TrEMBL record:
Name under which the protein is recorded: IGSF1 protein
Record-linked SUPFAM superfamilies: Immunoglobulin (SSF48726)
Gene Ontology biological process terms from the UniProt entry: immune response-regulating signaling pathway
Pfam families for the chain: Ig_2
Residue ranges annotated for the Ig-like domain, each copy included: 3-86, 95-163
InterPro entries, per the entry: Ig-like_dom, Ig-like_dom_sf, Ig-like_fold, Ig-like_Receptors_ImmuneReg, Ig_sub
Keywords of the record: Disulfide bond, Glycoprotein, Immunoglobulin domain, Repeat, Signal
Gene that encodes it: Igsf1
Length: 184
């Protein structure tokens, strides 16, 4: 397939006011320029940073919320654009959820894995994140509070976390502690 540029948050999830995160853009090029856009307007440029550029956000405010994407340019020509990344700045009012993995954090290739996000709030919906991916890996609810990975492969490895919110009251939790899944 065509070369793609990826964009993701490290750590993923909504950011609390005053909190920090980093927008990461990566591409297989090595001599170009990364340009970060917010809501369609050019924000920042990083030149000659190899295959990855990091744009930190510190002391986040409501001004930082919005739709971000990256462009990769060589010689002034846009080679590729990333997907969009929706950054949310939210007060954390819910308890921190707990992420667990069954049968455990180290599994053999081909195994069946269930990632479960638990929160002590009856109407909360939780997002499952995999660090390095732009969007939400899965949405978990009271009715379906686990995410199944069947026949895991090496590309399922990584750092997982979850974060919960209530639709009606629009309340958010902090992110859970992270879990590193290793596939042997």
């Amino acid at each position: 397939g065509a070369p793609t540029i990826s964009i993701f948050l490290k750590p993923p999830g909504a950011i609390p006011p005053g909190g920090s995160t980093t927008i990461c853009c990566s591409y297989q090029g090595d001599s170009g320029t990364f340009v970060l856009y917010k809501d369609g307007k050019q924000l920042r440029t990083l030149t000659g940073h190899g295959s990855r550029a990091e744009f930190p956000i510190s002391n986040a405010t409501q001004e930082d919320r919005g739709i971000y994407n990256c462009h990769y340019l060589e010689g002034g020509t846009v080679l590729v654009r990333s997907e969009t990344l929706d950054i949310k700045v939210e007060e954390f009012q819910l308890p921190q959820p707990v992420l667990s993995v069954l049968p455990g954090c180290e599994v053999a290739a081909g195994a069946h894995v269930a990632l479960r996000c638990t929160i002590t709030h009856s109407t909360a919906v939780c997002f499952l994140y995999l660090e390095g991916q732009a969007g939400v890996l899965g949405i978990l609810s009271k009715e379906q509070n686990y995410f199944n990975l069947s026949h895991v492969r090496k590309d399922n490895e990584g750092r997982y976390s979850c974060q919960c919110f209530t639709k009606r009251a629009s309340q958010w939790s902090a992110c859970s502690n992270t879990l590193d899944l290793v596939v042997r």
